[in-house]
Design a protein that fits this description.
By secondary structure, this protein is mainly α. The chain has helices spanning about 45-65, 95-105, 110, 130, 135-145, 170-180, 195-205, 215; strands spanning about 150, 155. Strands 1-2 form a two-stranded antiparallel sheet. α5 crosses α7 (about 195-205). The model is unreliable at about 65-75 (pLDDT under 50).
């Protein structure tokens, strides 16, 4: 009898030579377990659809595809403006605008931004006969430089040697510069083309030193050079 409850008798264990029966309380039948399958179960088709749509929206936000892109990226205050296919291209600079930039970088320190020059030293470009006259003569000054005194509007300027710009500025920049000074500060002379600058380079190619006033007067002494294009 059990020591804990003397009223309940403990079952006697079966003899060792007796096999356990299926209905015996000490018999536990192990259920059969199916082996694990090595084959992967395919993902549902809706997962592929959702992923595809997400990738499309993400990619289009960077490529600016039609309705997506520009509005999906918040640039925030002061952020850069994204380019648009419908945005008009910026208008190209005119020769006057490009010539003004060349003048500011190479000439304004002596002739001043207003073109009035410096009394006694650097001659003015405003209403100057050297600027408004022959294009070839003006090109000669810029290409080869100027030395000695020069008279402008009956005033003499003992200018320092003006350096030659032939190796500094391209024919395109020289044409823009000449166009600018001939059409600014009240000057109304016509523009200068690259072909005219190249023609002047060929015409004065043998000149190796800066021009003097006397030498410049030999170029179109009676007004505009007849070879100047209108």
């Amino acid at each position: 009898m059990s020591k804990q409850n003397p009223q309940v008798e403990s079952p006697q264990p079966p003899p060792h030579d007796v096999a356990l029966q299926p209905k015996s309380p000490d018999f536990i039948e192990t259920p059969e377990i199916e082996p694990l399958s090595l084959e992967k179960e395919p993902l549902p088709i809706w997962i592929y659809i959702v992923c595809g749509v997400a990738l499309f929206l993400t990619g289009s936000s960077f490529t600016g595809f039609q309705i997506f892109g520009n509005d999906m990226l918040d640039q925030g205050p002061g952020g850069p403006t994204l380019s648009s296919s419908t945005q008009e291209a910026a208008a190209p600079e005119t020769p006057i605008e490009k010539g003004k930039a060349v003048f500011g970088q190479n000439c304004a320190s002596c002739h001043q931004a207003s073109g009035v020059g410096q009394p006694g030293s650097y001659p003015p470009l405003v209403k100057s006969e050297w600027v408004l006259g022959s294009k070839a003569r003006l090109a000669a000054i810029l290409l080869k430089g100027l030395q000695g005194s020069v008279t402008v509007d009956n005033a003499t300027f003992s200018t320092m040697v003006m350096p030659a710009q032939e190796s500094v500025l391209s024919p395109e920049k020289l044409a823009d510069l000449m166009t600018y000074i001939r059409g600014s500060w009240g000057n109304t002379a016509g523009p200068v083309t690259v072909d005219e600058v190249n023609a002047a380079k060929t015409k004065f190619t043998s000149k190796t030193t800066a021009y003097s006033e006397a030498e410049l007067l030999q170029i179109a002494p009676n007004g505009p050079d007849p070879t100047d294009k209108k």
